[in-house]
């Protein structure tokens, strides 16, 4: 029988508390902010957990990213897809905030609202609040995104071409346009729009922009968006002081973070814990629980190194059983074994207090399962996650092999009713990381989550 023990050299030194970086209690809100973050390369199923936790929350927030993110929520058999909207917007008792760190493509936002409204999402106008400091993703940003990718040729990054990178570049270059600019003096908005359009035309002569038509369109958007916009920083601080519970939904995931991810195969925002503070204007001392969402295996979309990738029948099985196709791009996701070196690294950065293990039911048919527990480089185990993509491309993964449970877990709702092999799988993850698994996902629906507490 295959060993289930984690090799000694792969364990963390010393005992770890369930909270990696314990927070002091805050006078403002008493740590009433809960954060949900992706712990791998995205697509871990954060939306379903956010939807579940939103039932007991007053406000759900997005703090960064744009409509390059995709979250699927299944409620009463209906599937809702969110890209800019916080997943908690389905909950009629919750306010939904799109924070200053998010970049917003207004045509995409209104299209998303319309599609979900047709599926049964009602009265969103009473629940959606948008920051006046959020930057606008213009159609020309999306065109530039595609042109930049084309220029890179074989070295392209596999972006979603949603204009996210160029918009954050505009923001950093201080020629970006914010929601507040659109709602202010329209003559100044027009001046800024023409300036940025001319700037991009100089860089990309083939870029075609009908400036007058775009300006006319944005005049209409200004009237539509105005009732939803406010200063979300003051709003959130007021609500936290009054005791409201706030839930923050991170878009993308830690391995796509522009600082800590597999650069340059990353997104253009900080989708780790720091992005929560800068993307909403919240201080660290209001944050209580930080939940890292981990898929029971590993996937990633686009290019870049992927140490545990399976380019075989098992990888194909995971892709097919897990319906691993991007919500936003419809690209097939690359699949591989669970990589605990990745999760340990993102836990260092984010300080997870607990984990949510999703899609465990996808492993139901496997007779044995592998878990990545160490990286070797030039024959030697390394104790760090490589920043160099050359190094990461050349690591050799050391695995532990565990027996599969080979039975259906989709209808299990209590930890004790899981097969013993599935429980062992969870325990190996907890032991290696020193972090408890609080939730286990065994299906797509809202009710298919096991609360282990």
UniProtKB/TrEMBL annotation:
It is an enzyme of class 6 (ligase). SMART domains: Adenylsucc_synt. Keywords: Cytoplasm, GTP-binding, Ligase, Magnesium, Metal-binding, Nucleotide-binding, Purine biosynthesis. Mg(2+) binds at residues 43, 70. It comes from the Eukaryota. Its main location: cytoplasm. IMP binds at residues 43-46, 68-71, 160, 174, 252, 267, 331. InterPro entries: Adenylosuccin_syn_GTP-bd, Adenylosuccin_syn_Lys_AS, Adenylosuccinate_synth_dom1, Adenylosuccinate_synth_dom2, Adenylosuccinate_synth_dom3, Adenylosuccinate_synthetase, P-loop_NTPase. GTP binds at residues 42-48, 70-72, 333, 359-361, 441-443. Its EC number is 6.3.4.4. Binds 1 Mg(2+) ion per subunit. PROSITE patterns: ADENYLOSUCCIN_SYN_1, ADENYLOSUCCIN_SYN_2. Substrate binds at residues 327-333. Its cofactor is Mg(2+). The active site is at 43 (proton acceptor), 71 (proton donor), 171. It catalyses: IMP + L-aspartate + GTP = N(6)-(1,2-dicarboxyethyl)-AMP + GDP + phosphate + 2 H(+). It is found in: Cytoplasm. Pathway: Purine metabolism; AMP biosynthesis via de novo pathway; AMP from IMP: step 1/2. The keyword Magnesium applies. The keyword Nucleotide-binding applies. Belongs to the adenylosuccinate synthetase family. Homodimer. Plays an important role in the de novo pathway and in the salvage pathway of purine nucleotide biosynthesis. Catalyzes the first commited step in the biosynthesis of AMP from IMP. HAMAP family: Adenylosucc_synth. NCBIfam families: PRK01117.1, purA. This is Adenylosuccinate synthetase.
């Amino acid at each position: 029988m295959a060993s289930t023990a984690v090799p000694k050299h792969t364990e963390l030194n010393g005992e770890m508390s369930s909270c990696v970086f314990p927070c002091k209690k805050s006078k403002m809100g008493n740590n009433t902010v809960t954060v949900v973050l992706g712990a791998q390369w995205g697509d871990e199923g954060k939306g379903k957990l956010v939807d579940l936790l939103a039932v007991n929350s007053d406000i759900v927030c997005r703090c960064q990213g744009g409509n390059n993110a995709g979250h699927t929520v299944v409620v009463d058999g209906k599937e809702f897809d969110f890209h800019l909207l916080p997943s908690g917007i389905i909950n009629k008792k919750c306010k939904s905030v799109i924070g200053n760190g998010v970049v917003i493509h207004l045509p995409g936002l209104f299209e998303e609202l319309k599609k979900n409204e047709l599926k049964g999402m009602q009265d969103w106008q009473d629940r959606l609040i948008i920051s006046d400091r959020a930057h606008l993703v213009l159609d020309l940003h999306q065109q530039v995104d595609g042109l930049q990718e084309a220029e890179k040729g074989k070295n392209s990054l596999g972006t979603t071409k949603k204009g996210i990178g160029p918009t954050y570049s505009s923001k950093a270059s201080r020629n970006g346009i914010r929601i507040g600019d659109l709602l202010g003096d329209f003559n100044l908005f027009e001046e800024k729009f023409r300036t940025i359009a001319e700037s991009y035309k100089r860089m990309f002569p083939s870029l075609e922009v009908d400036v007058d038509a775009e300006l006319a369109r944005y005049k209409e958007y200004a009237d539509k968006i105005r009732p939803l916009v406010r200063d979300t920083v003051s709003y959130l601080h007021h609500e936290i002081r009054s005791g409201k519970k706030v839930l923050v939904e991170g878009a993308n995931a830690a391995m796509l973070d522009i600082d800590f991810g597999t650069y340059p195969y990353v997104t253009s925002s900080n989708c780790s814990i720091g992005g929560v503070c800068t993307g909403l204007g919240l201080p660290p001392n209001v944050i209580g629980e930080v939940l890292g969402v981990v898929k029971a295996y590993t996937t990633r979309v686009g290019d870049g190194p992927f140490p545990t990738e399976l380019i075989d029948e098992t990888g194909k099985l995971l892709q097919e059983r897990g319906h691993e196709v991007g919500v936003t791009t419809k690209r097939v996701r690359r699949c591989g074994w669970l990589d605990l070196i990745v999760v340990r690294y993102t836990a260092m950065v984010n300080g997870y207090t607990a984990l949510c293990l999703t899609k465990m039911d996808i492993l139901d048919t496997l007779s044995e399962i592998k878990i990545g527990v160490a990286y070797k480089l030039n024959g030697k185990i390394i104790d760090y996650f490589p920043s160099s993509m050359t190094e990461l491309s050349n690591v050799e993964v050391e695995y532990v092999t565990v027996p599969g449970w080979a039975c259906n877990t989709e209808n299990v709702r209590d930890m004790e009713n899981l097969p013993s092999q599935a429980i062992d799988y969870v325990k190996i993850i907890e032991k290696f990381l020193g972090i408890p698994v609080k939730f286990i996902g065994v299906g797509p629906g809202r009710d298919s989550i096991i609360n282990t507490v």
